[in-house]
Structure formats: C-alpha cells, structure tokens
Amino acid sequence: MSETTAHDDAHHGYRAGGVKRWLTTTNHKDIGTLYLVLSLIMFFIGGAMAMIIRLELFQPGLQFIEPQFYNSMTTMHALIMIFGAVMPAWTGFANWLVPMMIGAPDMALPRLNNWSFWILPFAFTLLLSTLFMPGGGPAGGWTMYPPLVLQTGEAFPFLIFAVHLMGASSIAGAINIIATVFNLRAPGMTLMKLPLFVWTWIITAFLLIAAMPVLAGAVTMLLTDKFFGTSFFSAAGGGDPVMFQHIFWFFGHPEVYILILPAFGIASAIIPTFARKPLFGYSSMVYAAASIAFLSFIVWAHHMFTVGMPLAGELFFMYATVLIAIPTGVKVFNWVATMWQGSMTFETPMLFAIAFVVLFTIGGFSGLMLGVTPVDFQYHDTYFVVAHFHYVLVTGSIFAIIAGAYFWLPKWTGHMYDERLGKVHFWLSTISVNVLFFPQHFLGLAGMPRRIPDYAVQFADWNMVSSVGGFVFGASQLLFVVAIIKCARGGVKASAQVWEGAHGLEWTLPSPPPFHSFSAPPDPATIEGGMR
Amino acid sequence: MTTAKIQPLLRGLTAALALAPLLAHAEWGNLNLPHGVTPYSETVYELHMLILWVCVITGIGVFGAIFYSIVRFRKSKGAVAAQWHENTFVEFLWTAVPAVILVVMAVPATKALIMMEDVSKSEMTIKVTGLQWRWRYDYIDQGVFLYSGLATTSNLARQLNSGIDPHTVENYLLEVDHELVVPVGRKIRFLTTASDVIHAWWVPALGWKRDAIPGYITESWALIKEPGVYRGQCAELCGKDHGFMPIVVRALPEAEYLVWLDQQKAAQKPKTAAIDQGNQHIAATR
C-alpha cells in the first residue's frame, strides 16, 4: 500500500493513445466509459428492433416482416436489452462510481476489469451475426425454452456461446466489485456507511455469482441436447422440458433483481440530493434490498404457474412471491418519506428519479397481481405481462440509468449538461413511454397473447396507440445522445460539489476527477460528515 | 411549471388529438378481463378486481403523497428541509400493514386455486394436443377426434402483403376449420399435452390457460354455464405460426351436443374401424 501511495500519477501516467488506450486500459474510469458507451449502442440496436416490432404491430395483418423474423426480433430485442443495455450500464456505473464512493484509487482487479469488458463486444458480435445466417437469428424467445429453441438453425451454437460469454463477463465484473468493496474501502468507511448504490451493487454482485453459472449450465445442456445426443430436456429420450424452465428461472428471477437493484441505489442517491434531506431509513433500505435478494431465489416458479405444478408448489410460490411486495413497499415508502418535508428542486436527474419511483411502483403493482396464481392463469403470456416487465425495466431500470447519467455526467465530464434539453428529453420520454406501455395492460386483459406478429382486429386500436407511443419514445432517446455528446464536449464548468445537496466522497473530488480517484485515503472526517 | 416543461406536454396532447379522428371507429370497451362462463372464471374475475382495487388504493396513497410533496415541499416556494431520517413506528407500520393486506388477499386466492385444481367428479374428458400449428382434440372413450387449425379466410388474409384488409375478414385469426364442440352444464376434464414443442391452450372465457408440454399430460377442468362460441389462442411461443393457431369452443345444449357427437361418430367410423383393424392386426402378429 505504502508503495502505491508513494507513486503519483506521473508514474502511472503512461497512457497509450487512440484505440490502444481503450484496448489496454486498466483504469476504472476508462472501463466505466467503455461499458456505458457499449450500453448506449446496444440500447439503440435493441431499440431499433423494438421499432420494427411496433411497426409490424401498428396495424393488424402482416405488412412488413415475416412471422419468423418477427420472432427473432422479439428474441434478440430482449437479449440485447437485458445483457447488452441494462447489465453493462450497471457495471459501467459501478466502475465509475464504486472506487470514488468508497475512497479507493481504482478497482481491486484492474486487468480482470479490462477483460470482463472486452469479452462483451465479441459476445454481441456473435449474437448479432446470427441475423445474417441461414435460418435467421434465434427466434425461440430469450427464455430459450426447449424443444422450440432446438429448432433454431445455424444460429443456435452462436446463441449459446454468446450467452456463455455474457455470463462470464458478468461474473468477472461481479467478482471485481465484491473484491473492491471488501478490500479497498477507505479507513472509516464501514459497511453501514456505504452509499446505497454500493450496497445494492454488492447484493447484485452476489446474485450474479449465484445465478449466472446456473444459466451457463442450462444453456450447456441445450448445446449437448442439440449436438451430442443427450436428452436432458427431451421427453422422447427420458428428459424433461419443464426441468429447463425450473433451471432457467432459478437464474431468471434473480436476474430481474440484478437488473433493478442498482436502480434502487441510484434513486437512493438522487432523491436525498434534490430533496436536500437525508435518505429516510438507510438501514431498512439495506435490509430490504437484502431480503429482496434472498426472496428472489425462492420464487422462480411463478414464471411457470401454467405448466401444471402440484397444488402445494403453486401455493408456495404464490405466497413467496407476494411477500416480495413487503420489502419493495418499504423502499418506495422510504423514498416518499425522503421527499416529505424536503426542499425539492427538479433538475433532470430528480425528474427521472421521481418518474422512476411512480412508474416502477405501477410495475410493482402489476407484479403483485401476476404473483397471485389463480389470476396469473389468465394474465400469463399476455400483453399484461409485457406491460408489467416494461414498466419495471424501461421506466424502472432504464429511467434510473438515465437519471444516474444526468446526475453524474457533470462529475465525469467536468461540464454541466444542457438542462433545458434534459427536461425536454424527460417530458417526451415520460409521456410517450406511458402511451407506449399503459395500453398494453388493456390488450393483455382483453386477451391478446404476447409474442405474436399479428392480432385479431379488436386489438387494433390500442396497438396503434402503443406503436405511436413507441415511435415517440424511440425518437426521444436521440435527445439523450445529443445531451451526452454536448456535455462531453463542453459546457458550463461543473464544481466539485456539482449539486447543492450532494453528499458522498465522489463529490469531494474535482470534476472531472483525477485519473486515480483517491491515491491517498480521504479524511475520515469527510466520511463521517458526508454520509447521509 | 416553466414553459420548458409545458411545451412538450402540449406537443404530446396535440399529437394525441390529431390521432383521435383516425381512431373514431374504435372499440375501446375491451379493457378488462372477461367475466367468463365457468364457475372458476367468475372467481378469477372477482379476485382480479380485488387485487386491482388494493393496488389502486395503495397507488392513490403513495402517488398522492409524492405529488403533495412535489407541490408543497419545493425549494422555489421557500420550503426548508427537515433533517429527520428515521421513525421506527412508521417503518413498523408500513411493513406490517402490507403484510396483513397480503394475508387477507391470500385467503381467497388459496380457495380459488384449490377449486381450480380439483378435477374430481368430471363427467367427460377431452384430450387437447398442441402441434405446430394446430390443435388435436380427442373425445376420450367416444372414438372421436378432430384437428383444428386456422380457417382459410384468415389464413389467406394473414399472408405478408396479402392485400386483404383484416377488418373485412370475419373473426380474423380467431376462426378455425373445425370447432371443439362441448356440452354445457357438464364438468369437462381437459388433458393437455403436445407432440412437438410447448404450446398453451387458452380460452379467456373459461378462466385459465394451461401449457401443452411434450411428455406431460396435465389436467384442468371447465363447466360451461351458457351455450355460445368462445374464442382463444395459443399462448406459448411455439414457432413461426404461434400467432396463427386459434381455439374455438362451441358450447351446445346437451341434446344438440349428442346429435353432433353421433354425426361425428358416423363420419369417423370408417376411419376408426380401420385403425381398430390395424390395432387388432398388430396385436395378432405379436
């Protein structure tokens, strides 16, 4: 330690220029940027696929694409958005923020960090290349249920290996974050003083380490079923197609909390800042996140109530599922209590954070409804489910990512973003995203199954409304890119504190922060006084 | 609100208004679950409404508090931030109250589920087999079976750029060549399975759906109270024509059903006789 602190940036100052800098970097900020840029690119690729889906669904009848291609669009859209947009965005935020928030110079495992990022472009190249293969891209749904997924053409092994690579990258990223938080915290930074974003990320990291290998196992069994004559999931060979669903959702349910927990951390950073009031119930926030993570491992079969489980199984998974409403409720109530009697201003990050709380809660409500088994028999695999998971993923995770980006961009770049542009982006996004997804509740309840390229005419009107919302939402995100580029290139100089109500170690560093965040540990008094 | 906030809002509203005439012929009524026609479907509907109202009331409380805070506790109006950040009593309350509400909701949900899973005392059995991309229905012990696929009118209209307006096709995508005919007033046991990939058999009016899985035979039941035609679709992604394997159930009064069944038996006799003969032949040669 003494040796590293004795060095200054001059020694580590060797930085390759151009492409080589980005290929060889072991710096947490550079890697954070790489993750976030990749995430943004994937957000637009996945978004383009969503536009194709909404275009085909604009009217009944098939006007633009064949059903098989439609299915590959829904499959790829999900894989790209989950593994390409949301997960790398969270790792990007963690890379940028965790060392700065805990008073560390960098991540604990910098070379692993480089590697875990650089796996991803290859993974997505593999995955996207399948669209140009004979038989087209994977079209069996992102859930990859056999036997259907085994009918995939030449894309099949590419799909499996892409998933393997994404999983390996996530596990490496998670290990790095755990190692960093447990080893590199500044003196005085005890666990119960960690900012909630760090807490939710540690919990997420443990979920990743526990869940991703399960997915790897499941898809490996698919691979051997297809190419090596095994029958893990083939009834004809003595296997069991339902077993895949159990294994998949044992990964899949923790996965949805992997996607949302860091969002909770971001909301818990932004709301107190702009309410100028300490976060309500810090310790209950930590315990609630941990309870949600624990429960996430014992609710998986609520994704498969309609497979015909025994009554006792259905009852267990129903009770466990609705229990999640309690810790989730605690979080929402805590955010509301944080705003109560605050002194609020409504800069873009706060607007997105408030919209996150409201709209994520709507997704939580529909989640509660879906958890009740007898009614899930009606909701399951309809547009009601599509509406539900887009409320928690788009207005949940994505809104939190956008909020976090506006919140920390001034810290990262040293410039303020264009507030007016940010607000226009916010209002357009928030209105259009509701026009896009709210009517899908009606469509589902009225009987429209999900994953269909064409529908009966009684569903035509709400589909058209939803598509219009989709096009506006998609176009609005271009404003986000403009805002980011403008901010990166220049603008009003940001102070170290940036926001009047900001608390935490990252705000004690200059904007932009030095190459190595804290080459000497911060003053413990700052930690004591700064944490809220 | 500043003008910067209002402008996009107005723009959104204008866009919505411009759309209105386009959608004048709209059928906006279909917003909720159907009541359905089985004892179970009504229970499900009531449970759905119960949870929906619990959510709506909670939502009004939570969102009300957020919007009140936004209006009341804003810095621009001179609000000064309090510094409290804990209150054990309130925290206990908002953990315990939801827990009680959940338990109260779990009671009717458990009852409904037990009712749903009780296939005993059924009076007839129909085996439903999903295959890419049709349904096969076997009337067990009656020697009658039929295949049911998308009707030709819909099939022609749903081709890419068919030039046929779906609005002109009767029951577009919800019409089949051979309907599943069942009697009203009998408890029917459905055995669901599949022969290739996983499908799901779903008729909303019956109140449930059930996956059709190769290698599995799962049980469900329905007792249809009113004669009528009830439409549904496959609800589990099953390949390229997943969106094109509808289900039509025609529920007839008992007497009419029996007439239909006799017709089917007569029509299928030559077929089934041949199968029987074949089976006997196989048995004999063993």
- Unreliable stretches of chain A (pLDDT < 50, length at least 5) are 1-11
Mass-distribution shape of chain B: elongated
Largest interface: A-B, 107 and 110 residues
Tally of separate domains of chain B: 2
CATH superfamily of the largest domain in chain B: Cupredoxins -  blue copper proteins
Order of helices and strands of chain B: HHHEEEHEEEEEEEH
**How many distinct helices of chain A?**
18
Give the N-terminus to C-terminus distance of chain A in angstroms. 29 Å
Distance between the termini of chain B: 87 Å
Task: Estimate the global geometry of chain A from the Cα principal axes.
Answer: globular
Largest sheet of chain A: none
The CATH C-level name of the largest domain in chain B is Mainly Beta
The radius of gyration computed from the alpha-carbon positions of chain B, rounded to a whole number of angstroms, is: 27 Å
* SSE-based structural type of chain A: mainly alpha
In what order do the strands lie side by side in the largest sheet of chain B? 3-2-1-5-8
Work out the count of structural domains of chain A.
Answer: 1
